[in-house]
């Protein structure tokens, strides 16, 4: 089976360096914080084009702490796109605010800037740069949180200017060996606040303060994950080049009945997603040919049971998109022959 992601094959690309870095951390005795984490903060922030990075133990935590740094809390509303992973809305609810689902564009599953459901209680908007496609929302009257979970390697990295959040889940283009995340900011004051929020609000041992109106907690990236990420970061340009080459082949070789999504030049190539009629039959055809596929995502956030009762605008574009979207393998470990096999598995005519 040609897999959607292959973390083991990816590890083999840089395995010797990763294992050496991990052993150095284990031998150092510095497992929480320390110089490896400090280096990761600086290098990862620079890679995404921000001045400061604060590491966290997951991308979900990164979103929540980004919102807390903006002072978002109970009584506030935060607009989220209808097409995204649940954590985007879950992080809003976790800080006590209300997620408000907005519909996406007709051509791309990104927030439609012309139809944002802004209201008097809107405190922020989360711009999800889905699949690595930039979602730029200039001129909004509220801060924007950039969800950059799928944007590693974008050039330039998209930015709406306030604060960003990243997931380093293992299947991401830049992935750790477990959960890990990062909050990004260009403000030294915000970076200080975030460091405190993610470490129990503790400016000195056993002194705990409220920060941005919130009580801090523990969301520290461990040094092992930081070491893994630093090695994978060195391999990132090569990964993006390989993914881009595969995407260009798909662009040119997939049959005409497969609808490609438009792609900005700075797209990070995290996923290659198409729209197809009769999607279940297409997936069955691919599987019969040994090709994996995935649904990112099978339903609008507006239709998630956990969000029942929260306000949302109608999402007809998201509903139409979610009924047709299909992701196919796109990663740096695909061989030339495997890409050919994926293309051939579609067949010349729609099922």
Give the overall average pLDDT.
97
| Rg, Cα atoms, Å | 20 Å
Name the poorly predicted regions.
none
- Main beta-sheet strand count, sense and barrel state: 7 strands, mixed
Helix content: 25-40%
The class by helix and strand makeup works out as alpha/beta
What amount of the residues lies in strands?
Answer: 5-15%
Count of separate structural domains: 2
Q: Going across the major beta sheet, what is the strand order?
A: 1-7-6-5-4-2-3
Number of extended strands: 12
Walk me through what this model shows:
With 351 residues, the chain is an alpha/beta fold. The protein folds into two domains: 7-102 and 109-228, Aspartate Aminotransferase, domain 2; 235-346, Aspartate Aminotransferase, domain 1 (Alpha-Beta Complex), CATH 3.90.1150.10. It is 36% helix and 14% strand. The chain is built from nine helices and twelve strands. The chain has helices at residues 7-28, 35-48, 59-69, 87-94, 188-197, 223-253, 279-288, 316-324, 336-346; strands at residues 52-56, 77-81, 98-102, 122-128, 144-147, 163-167, 181-185, 210-211, 214-215, 259-260, 272-275, 325-328. The strands form three sheets. Strands 1-7-6-5-4-2-3 form a seven-stranded mixed beta sheet, with helices on both faces. Strands 10-11-12 form a three-stranded antiparallel beta sheet. Strand 2, helix 4 and strand 3 (98-102) form a beta-alpha-beta unit. Helix 1 runs antiparallel to helix 6 (223-253). The radius of gyration is 20 Å and the shape is globular. It starts with 6 loop residues before the first helix and ends in a 5-residue tail after the last helix.
